[in-house]
């Protein structure tokens, strides 16, 4: 029902998109215009293929610039996507029908699993802490808040009092250890919703920017 505990990969731009981005640079637009003008003037003056030499030279130089820039940007985007994938990958100790933990891939976590966590670990899914001691989580990747947030385990006595027991996916446990119950995985986590929303938002048009 909830799917795999993984997050949408960053969108990689196509080669066509990367090529077109080169023309966001006014210098490249000027070079293209200069090449076309040079070709037209050369043909009119020389009235022979010799008139194409100067304009063609500019076009070749522009072509090389675009190929190099687009290739470098494509490689960078692929590397970034791989780094994001590696940073999300982790093994998690989980209790499943036993008092002993088993180690599984974080992507295989299910809602209802109880995980074991400790300082230095990234929270693999949205959880609620059921046991813990001196737990502090850094949630800056999600909230922008630079300070760690102290967490307390939820109990029958405090669950209605607004106790800070929730642990969000991608937050970092900077202190303490304990156990937590998985409430949401993958796209259903706060991090997953933020990632999907960020990827679906398109850049504002020039008209929208002026209206703002």
From TrEMBL:
Subcellular location: Endomembrane system
Sequence ranges assigned to domain Cation-transporting P-type ATPase N-terminal in this UniProt record: 2-38
Domain P-type ATPase A: 90-197
Keyword Transmembrane listed: yes
Keywords on record: Magnesium, Membrane, Transmembrane, Transmembrane helix
Residues annotated as transmembrane: 27-44, 51-68
GO cellular component, one term: endomembrane system
One Pfam family, short name: Cation_ATPase_N
Top-level taxonomic group: Eukaryota
Membrane association type: Multi-pass membrane protein
Name of the protein described by the UniProt record: Uncharacterized protein
Organism annotation: Strombidium inclinatum
Phylogenetic classification of the source organism: Eukaryota, Sar, Alveolata, Ciliophora, Intramacronucleata
């Amino acid at each position: 029902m909830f799917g795999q505990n993984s997050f949408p990969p960053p969108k990689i731009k196509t080669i066509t998109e990367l090529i077109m981005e080169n023309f966001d640079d006014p210098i490249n637009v000027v070079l293209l215009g200069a090449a076309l003008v040079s070709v037209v003037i050369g043909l009119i003056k020389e009235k022979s293929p010799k008139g194409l030499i100067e304009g063609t030279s500019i076009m070749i130089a522009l072509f090389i610039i675009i190929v190099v820039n687009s290739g470098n940007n494509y490689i960078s985007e692929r590397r970034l996507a791989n780094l994001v994938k590696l940073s999300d990958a982790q093994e998690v100790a989980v209790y499943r029908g036993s008092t002993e933990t088993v180690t599984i891939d974080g992507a295989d976590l299910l809602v209802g699993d109880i995980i074991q966590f400790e300082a230095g670990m990234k929270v693999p899914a949205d959880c609620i802490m059921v046991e813990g001691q001196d737990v502090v989580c850094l949630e800056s990747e999600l909230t922008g808040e630079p300070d760690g947030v102290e967490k307390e385990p939820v109990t029958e006595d405090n669950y209605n009092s607004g106790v800070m027991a929730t642990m969000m996916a991608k937050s970092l446990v900077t202190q303490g250890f304990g156990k937590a119950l998985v409430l949401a995985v993958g796209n259903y986590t706060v991090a997953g919703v933020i990632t999907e929303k960020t990827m679906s938002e398109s850049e504002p048009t020039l008209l929208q920017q002026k209206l703002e």
